[in-house]
Specification:
The chain is mainly alpha-helical and 106 residues long. The chain contains one helix and no strands.
Length: 106
């Protein structure tokens, strides 16, 4: 069977190729489980970030709605004040212009 040094090297190379193939199969087997675990971890992280986003966005949405309501109220108040102010100013101008004309006549 093993008569020369070449036969020994051939036997060692066959065993090493078989051993490397076996180790490669074990590595790929473990790699499959690592990838599956990473998928589960990524999915869980996605769920956690969605929950955190929901928790953070709830107060932001409430604040946004409150700000929108306040903005609408201020705009409505300012627009109604401008109409009243312009009416009051025009009334004052009419009254003051009448008084001024009256004063000038005297």
């Amino acid at each position: 069977m093993i008569e020369t040094l070449g036969d020994v090297f051939m036997l060692v190379s066959i065993i090493s190729v078989g051993l490397v193939g076996f180790l490669l199969a074990i590595f790929l087997y473990h790699l499959i489980f690592v990838v599956m675990d990473l998928r589960q971890i990524a999915k869980r992280l996605n769920d956690i970030t969605a929950e955190v986003e929901e928790m953070v966005m709830a107060p932001v949405q409430v604040a946004s709605q409150a700000f929108g309501w306040l903005q609408k109220w201020v705009f409505d108040f300012c627009l109604s004040d401008k109409k009243e102010c312009s009416e009051k100013k025009s009334d004052k101008k009419k009254k003051s212009s009448g008084k001024k004309k009256g004063k000038r006549k005297k």
